[in-house]
Amino acid sequence: MFVLAVQQGLNGLVLGSLYVLVALGLTLVYGVLVQINFAHADFVMIGAFSAYFVTHALHGDYLLSLAAAGAVGALLGYLVNAAIFAPLLGKGSELRPLIATIGVSVMLENGALALLGPVPYAFATRYSAEVIRFGPLYLTAQSVIILAVAATAIVLLHGFLRFTFLGKALRAVAQDRETAGLMGIAPDRLIMLTFIIGSALAGLGGALLAPVLVLTPFAGTSVIVKAFAIVIIGGFGNIEGTILAGLLVGLIEAMTTQVLDPGLIDIVVFGLLLAMLVIRPTGLIAERREENV
Amino acid sequence: MTGPGAAPLLTAEDLHKRFGGVQAVGGLSFTLPPATVLAVIGPNGAGKSTLLNLLSGVHRADAGRLSFAGTELAALPAHRRARLGLARTFQKIRLFRHLSVLENVLAGFYTQHRIPTWQYLLHGPAFHADRRRCRQAAAELLAFVGLLARAATPAGALAYGEQRLLEIARALATQPRLLLLDEPAAGLNGAETEALRVRLTALRGRGLAMILVEHDMDLVTRIADQVLVMHYGQKLFAGTPAAMREDAGVIAAYLGGELA
Amino acid sequence: MSDVPSPVAAASLPAAECRPGWPGRAGAAATLGIVAILPLVLRDSYGRGLLIAGALNVIQALGLDLILGFAGQLDLGAAAFYGIGAYVSTLLVMLAGVGFWPALALGTLAAGVMGGVLALLTVRLRGHYLAIASLGFAVITYQVLLNWISLTQGPLGLYGITPPAGFTDPVRLFYLIAACAVLVFAALRALLASPVGATLAALREDEISAASLGIDCRRWKAFAFAVGSAVAGLAGGLYPGFAGTLVPDAFAPADSFGVLAMVIVGGIGTLRGPVLGAVVLTLAPELLRGIGDARMIVYGLALTLVVLFMPGGLDGAWRMAAARLRRNQAG
Ligand SMILES: Nc1ncnc2c1ncn2[C@@H]1O[C@H](COP(=O)(O)OP(=O)(O)OP(=O)(O)O)[C@@H](O)[C@H]1O
Ligand SMILES: [Mg+2]
Question: A2-291 architecture in CATH?
């Protein structure tokens, strides 16, 4: 019983670190832009399909396909920012970019549906079958890769934000756009950079998720819906909070799968989200900030 | 006008407000007699806007008591305080920018509509009478601030000085008993400031109590009955404008350079 | 005080906000005439089905626009309230033996109450948070419909639902739903021309200012959410009799985006806009049927392009064109 719980905890950690990757992209963008890219979900889906085609059609290595998926994500992020967020920046509406990216998302999903069909793609890597045992516990090699890549990405990101000049500038923009201008870096460049990093994380997350996902054109939606919940639970724009919330949601999901119907997971996660919004609207970590009037 | 014995309109006792590490208001007490204009002055960051925010309910005080015309304010949200007769303008102008000048003022009549509920769906005589009454009153307010000719203009398209005046008209539409003004002359040129002064003097003549946060000392001395000088969230001085000019503490901390 | 202007008459103000213009009396009459004739022109069952779908979309788009356009609250959960109206009214008829009309009223009420409660729960949230909370509510509702099998039959759905007595003929059913759409339009128009319109506009523009005028923003957000969601619920209650079956997939969270597209494409924050948007986006995909199931791609594309290049939507474009025409005639 205890072993089972620990095993589920381990699985939850793997799942959670995937959610963290996807959610971090959203949170990064929100931090600098105070905007949501709704098509982020589809970057995840397209990342997953990129990995699929690199490994299955081009017979490339799975690890190589991860890089490809990240690159595809970065490209998509570049395009969406250039086409939508940059032109609408400073037009003073929080609704317009969000709605425009909902349009992009609907297009990407249904475009993918027209091209790829609704039947799920089976994606197995040679790492999925390889089981590594630690006493009574086990992990697939795929899970180990997920943990390793996610941890590396998170550590690199953290180091980048904390220790490089660009990273510090980025955090400065997130705090307040004018200060960043004083640092001599054009905010729009930083926003683009953030978009590219965040979207690359989405693509990468998609590629890592691909083998465990029901891989259809709508695959991103189920993930992103949780990523949204995570971002809010963690406090929008708050990176540590997002990591914590992502792992938490992964754990909760792994635990509830054990006792509940998988169909009920969304209800649990969103019930948690709504409860959170009512009790602590600023998220797990963030402190209350009062509007300066 | 009012003797010192009259019950105060507003009483603040030991107000505190902290933002993170900043004690914006720290232990402030004062009273405002009816039909009095109180000017609040002090250097940038002294806590003047925070004081108005505490009075109008934009922020909740961490500690302290507030009573307005015999009602305890501390627990009331901003909209309830407005209903009691507290109206305000904002240092950073907050008009409804996309609505017309007229619509901005009409929104201020929110608490004064007298329409039976069903007439919101089936407009009857009471509905039309209410509309006529509010539009008439709005026209008078717009004429008072000199914006009647701009009634159809979007508020965001007005000149800066006009926006300040429109904010006052919108606040007056709520029929306040106390008007809180946060730096109404900031950013105005000489002529605009004079136009503002004329309006404020007229309001004062009608016996409207006001709390006026202002840096323009000329405006303050010409309008205020009382002055409260704030410094680091605390009261440095309270008294008449004339007494303030003589006060050594005020001169040292704040006025020295300006009045020299 | 001679320097202060003396009181003036309100006569010098611009006309009151109940503007004439389209669909002024003539336009309204013409529109009603076309609506009345349409089912007689489109005689095949496919065309009539399209008409009914269009009328249901008009109602839904009007409800969402009240929340989104007039009150400025970003609601991404429209599909949930449509579904609540549909399931509550149908289950009342099927399981509790309630008559169609009271069931319709109760379904509408249930959707309205849920909308109001959601708004009260999320009332401290602005913009994006509310968007995600309402989307989350749509996800939960959808999952409940799928998983509460003892009540909803889950994905298998409910079958053999009939339209209300007297409206089994598709032409009459269309007239019924179209009449509901007209009523909703008229009611919202009257409501928004009253001080409620100004109050919601104030809430939408700036909550802190609105509160300083005595407006209880919590209450009015809940009001807008409740009324808009009730309108969605009304459409939901009218839908199952037309479809004959009721499955959760008809209320998938992504369906909210279809309604959203109608509001945006037609013109957000106007009453004519959502009507235009619903009609156009119900019909447009039919014109493109040659290229497969392109419906949703068209919606997505239209949504993005309109937001980027035509923020006023079709209604805004119409208005600008009309203004230009008037200027040209004058000059
Ligand atoms: N919402 C807020 N969040 C955080 N800090 C705040 C907030 N409002 C005010 N402060 C801080 O409280 C202090 C007092 O600010 P306040 O705006 O009341 O000053 P003020 O006297 O109005 O100054 P000014 O003359 O520049 O308008 C300042 O240090 C300010 O930075
Ligand atoms: Mg100030």
Answer: Orthogonal Bundle (1.10)
Read off the tokens for C71: 């009150």
Interface ipTM above 0.85 = yes
Nearest-CB residue to A290 (from B19, B91, B94): B19
With H, G, I as helix, E, B as strand and everything else as coil, classify residue B158.
coil
CA of B39 to the centre of ligand 1 (A): 18
The pTM score is 0.90
Chain A CB within 8 Å of residue C288 CB: no
Each domain of chain A, given as residue ranges in start order, spans 2-291
DSSP B155: G
Q: Per-residue pLDDT for B145 more than 60? A: yes
Judge if the upstream peptide bond of residue C23 is cis by omega within 30 degrees of 0. Answer: yes
Domains and their CATH numbers in chain B: 1-85+176-260 (3.40.50.300), 98-173 (no CATH)
Question: Which tokens sit at A181?
Answer: 């201008």
* pLDDT tens, position by position, A95-108: 788 889 989 998 99
Q: Is A133 exposed, middle or buried (0-12, 13-18, 19+ CB in 10 A)?
A: exposed
3-class secondary-structure state, position B122: coil
Closest ligand to residue B45's CA: 1
Nearest to C304 among A107, A110, A274 (CB): A107
Which residues have CB less than 5 Å away from ligand 2 (the ion)? B 49, 91
Whether residue C58 contacts residue C235, with contact meaning beta carbons closer than 8 Å, is answered with: no
Q: Does B48 reach chain A within 8 Å, measured CB to CB?
A: no
pLDDT tens by residue, C123-176: 776 667 788 889 889 988 998 999 888 888 888 888 888 888 888 888 899 999
